Amino acid sequence: MRSRVWCAAAAAVLGFLTAGCGGGKGTQDNSGEKAAAGSGYPVAVTDCAGAKTTFSAAPEKIVTSNASSLELLLRLGAGDRVVGTGFPPGKGTLPEGLDAEAQKVEVLGQTVIPKEKLLGSGADLYIDTFASMGGMGGMGGGMGDAPSPEEFKAAGIKHVYLKSTACAPMGKGPVTDLSAVEEDITSLGAVTGTRAKAMELVAGMKQQVDAVRKGIAGVGENARPTYFLFDYDAGTKQPMAVCNRQVANAVITLAGARNVFADCEGDFKQVSWEEVVAKNPDWIQLGVRNRGDDAANEKAFDEARKWLESNPATKGLKAVQEGHFLRIGSERTTIAGVDNAAAVAEIARTIHPDKVK
Predict the structure, then answer these.
(1) pLDDT score at 11
(2) What is the pairing mode between strands 325-326 and 158-161?
(3) Strand, coil or helix: what is 105?
(4) Residue 294: pLDDT over 50
(5) How far apart are CA 258 and CA 307, in angstroms?
(6) What number is the average pLDDT over the span 195-216?
């Protein structure tokens, strides 16, 4: 009875994910393979277009497209099954306790993993943080020669996505909560057999976000300060704005602020400084990327602030004049993961100090 109650609760949380939670007899997945009774398999996940991939057992050799999916697997306790990654995390850039394990993972590509290396990796699962069907196109869209579904199948590799990022550009509306990120975590937990840890991580995220929600419950829409995420490392000549399909829009919204580019459809868009000046944000996040060292990070934050204070186009902005800056690494805000909830809390404590402690 207990297992059936858990399965009903899990199904409500996962939504797009189905798992074998039945009684004493084995069940069958789409390929007809038997799953052990009580194992939680088969598990099926869908991609951005709704195509289903079914697992009759936990994968044993996993390749990740970049550091975000690698970090999630490490947090889930499945890091020992990762045999390679692309876009590897720099030394010291992952939270303490995860960094050493991450550095042991073989780097198959400093950026997008070459097709031949991916297909020859011996993996049985490839987790793609991007979409191979447009958008950022981590394995497509001009960022590499993507293996075809037939090639993945021939190599024995199942291909799944982090839907919170891969599917974001084609979303139907603004992203204003972390439900897609939470679904990715629970989905990976089900696929890798680490459901309990996944539910624990999601519960922790919900606790942080709920505390913020309660604190700012009485703050009306017009009382919410306007907010601009300045991606300093994306370049200063033409700023990169986070739009309403990006997870950062959810982080900003949940924290009780208004993304000044929330009217921008999509995930990212290059804008002009004239547009930023016209928005005149109340707060600016100095979104530098993690250098792997606290001193180096602080130096980068200082550089970003000094640039805004000295640039003729931005030095008169309200946020700059009032010193309303937040030193929060861009990855914690723009890359889907457990730290998104912590970023919500940190932003809220800064911009609503009398309401969120």
Answers:
(1) 34
(2) unpaired
(3) coil
(4) yes
(5) 23
(6) 98
Classify strands 125-128 and 62-64 as parallel, antiparallel or unpaired. parallel
Instruction: Give the span between the Cα atoms of 39 and 44, in whole angstroms.
Output: 14
Domains in the chain and their CATH numbers? 56-202 (3.40.50.1980), 216-351 (3.40.50.1980)
Q: What is the pLDDT of residue 153?
A: 96
Could you give the angle at the alpha carbon of 195 between the alpha carbons of 173 and 201, nearest 5°? 65
Cis bond before residue 147 (omega within 30° of 0): no
- Cβ neighbours of residue 142 closer than 8 Å, sequence gap 6 or more: none
Question: Which pTM was predicted?
Answer: 0.85
Using the predicted structure, report yes or no on whether residue 142 has a pLDDT greater than 80. no
Sign of CA dihedral 209, 211, 215, 220: positive
pLDDT number for residue 323:
98
- Taking each helix axis as running N to C, give the angle between helix 247-254 and helix 339-351, from 0 to 180 degrees, rounded to the nearest 10: 40
- Annotate 141-163 with b (16+ C-beta within 10 A) or e (fewer): beebebbeeeebeebebbbbbbb
How far apart CA 333 and CA 227 sit, in angstroms, is 13
How do residues 301-330 score in pLDDT, each as one tens digit?
A: 999 999 999 999 999 999 999 999 999 999
pLDDT tens for residues 65-85? 999 999 999 999 999 999 999
Mean predicted confidence (pLDDT) in 169-184 = 91
Residues 6+ apart with CB under 8 A from 267: 135, 136, 168, 169, 242, 243, 245, 246
3-state secondary structure 207-270: HHHHHHHHHCCCCCHHHCCEEEEECHHHCCCCCEEECCCCHHHHHHHHCCCEECCCCCCCCEEE
CB 149 within 8 A of CB 51: no
* Per-residue pLDDT at 199 exceeds 50: yes
Buried b (16+ CB within 10 A) or exposed e, 245-272: bbbbbbbbbbbbbbbbbbebebbbeebe
Q: How far apart are CA 215 and CA 356, in angstroms?
A: 5
Q: Which residues of 314-353 are buried (b: 16+ CB within 10 A; e: fewer)?
A: beebebbeeebbbbbbbbbbbbbbbbbbbbbbbbbebbbe
For the chain, the average pLDDT equals 87
